[in-house]
Each structure stands twice: as structure tokens, then as C-alpha cells.
Amino acid sequence: MVRNFYFFRHGQTNENAEGAKEGNRTDAFLTSDGVLQAKQLAEFLRDKKIDAFYSSPLPRAVRTAEIVAEYHPATPIIIEDDFIETAFGFWYNDDADAQRRIDNNFNRISGALGRIVAQRELLDVAVSSHGGVTRALCWAAGMRVGNIKNCQCFHFVLDDTGWHFVESFDTGIEVVNKSDIPQDE
Description:
The protein has five helices and six strands, in the order βααβαβαβαββ. Helices cover 32% and strands 19% of the residues. With 185 residues, the protein is of the alpha/beta class. It has one domain: 3-Layer(aba) Sandwich (Rossmann fold). Strands 3-2-4-1-5-6 form a six-stranded mixed β-sheet.
């Protein structure tokens, strides 16, 4: 059995544009560029069969999923709380507990993916989430990725031999995400 998985980050938000790291904030919404990015992603996924959309509960991910799902009106969008972005505070200190928290974050995300994979009737799944979550999903599928652009999508196939990377889609809509610029620049 061959199954398709599409993992993607939400579109650009007001917080990305202003330079804040969003974490699990609920007040970050798509900018007009973010909506355009989501529409480009929707075009890429338009002809793909999608049995279910999963989304982080945060508005920016849900809105991106809604835009992408417009070409799949009968396909449900299922909120998965474990795809929420992490709170970033612990990433920026030397707390000895930080690695445990990072591991717990990865285990939470990969556990949610495992629950979806266990639903064998879902052959084609799209997941709308966040940069860190999308990175963890890719890692769980065996691909190490670095920075992930807004609405960048990673297509994997899961078959009897495991996970296989197929392609990556980038909207080509270049925006300045001040939150992606290293602090020392």
C-alpha cells in the first residue's frame, strides 16, 4: 500500500513580518502575502487526492489549511492539538532541561503522526502546521531539513519499505520574514 503525506508550514504572518518568533501565540494571522502563498500551495495540491487535512489548532495554520482545502471541499480539516508550535522560551537559554524539552516536543509531534499513520484508511494526508513542527515531521520521515519557508510543502510516500521523499514545493513568493533573520545580522 502506497500512502502520500504532504507536510507544510503556514503562510507568512504579521508576526513573521515584524520579526517576532511566534511560538504558540494565537494572535499571529496571515498577511496578504501569506494568503497568496497559501493560494499557490492550493494550486500545487489542487489535483492531488487528499483524504484528510490535519492542522495545528493555531489560527495561522487553520487558515492556511482552509485556503488549501478550497479545492477539496468534501475533505475534512481535523484539528490535531499535538501539531501546535512549541513555546520558544526554552530554546534560548542554557537550561540543562532544554534537551529533554526538545525531545518531548519531537515525541509529541511524531506521536501524532503515528496516530495518523495507524488510520490505514487514510491514504493521502496533508498537514498544515509550523516551521518546527514541519521540520520534526520531515525528520520523523527520515529527512533532515533546516529552515522551512512559509507554505513550503514536503511530499513523502509511505509504503511497505518505509518513508520516501518525493518532492518539495516552494511557492516562489519571496517575503521578508524578519523572524528568520539571524539575530547577529
